[in-house]
Amino acid sequence: MKRREFLRLVGASLTIGSLDGRFNGLFAASPSVVSVAEGNDYPEATRRAITALGGIQKFVKPGNVVVVKPNLAWDRKPEFAATTHPLVIKTIVEECLKAGAKKVKVFDNPCNDPRRCYERSGAQEALKGLGNVELKYMDEERYKNVKLKGVFLKEWPLYDEALSADVLINVPVAKHHGLTKLTLALKNMMGIMGGNRGYIHRAIEEALADVNSMVRSHLVVIDATRILLDHGPQGGNLKDVRVLNKIVASRDIVAADAYATTLFGLRPEDITTTVTAFRRGMGEMNLNKVRIIRA
Fold first, then answer.
1. Which residue range forms the structural domain that includes residue 11?
2. Per-residue pLDDT tens for 56-89?
């Protein structure tokens, strides 16, 4: 590409206010990479998926404050696939501590009672006794109104500890959702939002892109050890659960969601949250352009 053409494309993208999907690769130093690890030893599979991306030290440096953001939204036991598996959460936290993290904070804004969610999901027990780790109940006073300058959301209360973290690791469970078909990493960031979250359902695709544009996930680790195929996001019937024993990891939140979509027999273009984030230049959804590593 000639310099004049490059500048013309950049100028066009700035004029429309956000990068169109056509420009996703324009600034990329290298193709998006997704690692996929499989095995019924969930800690080992989680470590392999992260190692394939260069190891946790690529993301976490000594002295960093790290937020690990799982899905703990529902009062469900791990086998129902409504929440992130506790062994996946624990392994990521342990890896962060090995890399020299000063503090690791784990939290979510659940739909059910937070104390029951944290306990029933297994997260509370899994993190018990780990030093420099804080499983937090989110304090209403710590939400800050943030100017998003988004397509749908112009401002919204977001949790300040997610905003101030040196590293944010997004750890959703892969599952069905009645409104968006699937809930993966992009939608998992609803858990840092305060306020009346029901409001964003009016334009949920744009709203999620608005939030994810402001608060970027440095690393995405999708828990597909078991996936919820129907009656999500809450679930509650083991007949709706399929055990896959897979962990999906990437720096690219769109690529991670795109790959995880295929685990449900769907295509990335079937999921409007993925399509919207891609259109707005937040990552790559064309899996033919993504390097997939079997870890």
1. 1-27
2. 999 999 999 999 999 999 999 999 999 999 999 9
Torsions phi, psi of 72, nearest 5? -125, 35
Q: Are 133 and 97 in contact (CB under 8 A)?
A: yes
- What global pTM score does this model have? 0.89
Q: For the domain that residue 259 is a member of, what is the CATH number?
A: 3.40.50.11440
Q: Find, among 151, 239, 143, 237, the residue nearest to 197 by Cα.
A: 143
Residues 6+ apart with CB under 8 A from 41: none
Same-domain pairing of 115 and 133? yes
Beta strands of the chain (E only): which ranges?
33-38, 65-70, 103-106, 133-135, 143-147, 155-159, 167-171, 173-177, 181-183, 219-228, 241-250, 291-294
- How many separate domains does the chain show? 2
Question: What is d(CA 111, CA 121) in angstroms, rounded to the nearest whole number?
Answer: 13
Tell whether the model's pLDDT for residue 6 goes beyond 80.
no
d(CA 157, CA 69): 17
- Both 105 and 197 in one domain: the answer is yes
